[in-house]
Write a structure and sequence with these properties.
Layout: E1 4-8, E2 13-17, E3 20-25, E4 29-33, E5 39-43, E6 52-61, E7 65-73, E8 78-85, E9 99-102, E10 108-112
Length: 113
């Protein structure tokens, strides 16, 4: 079984898409799961939710629970299912409730500033 570690992400983190800053946070969480790259989870209060539209897509992780997905809508395009959230994560993963993570791509940047 893969261990999952959740800790406070050091410093200030930002997420950008389509030239717009979607969020900046000093309260982000860093989730590490086995050999996978770490994922930064942003508190919803630090994200401009006006850029995000919830989709019907969902997935299930036996270690974290059911994830809901959001598309990022910019002036020029929509990035389908580019962010996800565990609204009611399973026991032991409660810290990521109320947080959003983003797929880093050529169009979406997640970085420490």
């Amino acid at each position: 079984m893969t261990d999952i570690t959740i800790r406070n992400a050091e410093g200030t983190w930002t997420v950008r898409a389509g030239g717009a800053v979607l969020g900046e946070s000093r309260n982000a969480l860093e989730l590490t799961e086995g050999d996978y790259p770490s994922v930064i989870y942003f508190p919803r209060d630090d994200i401009a939710m006006a850029f995000l539209d919830r989709t019907d897509h969902s997935t299930h992780c036996p270690k974290k629970g059911d994830a809901t997905y959001f598309s990022i809508v910019t002036k020029s395009t929509t990035h389908e299912n580019a962010a996800w959230s565990y609204e009611t994560p399973i026991e032991g993963m409660e810290r990521i409730a109320g947080h959003l993570a983003f797929y880093a791509t050529d169009f979406v940047t997640v970085e420490r500033i």
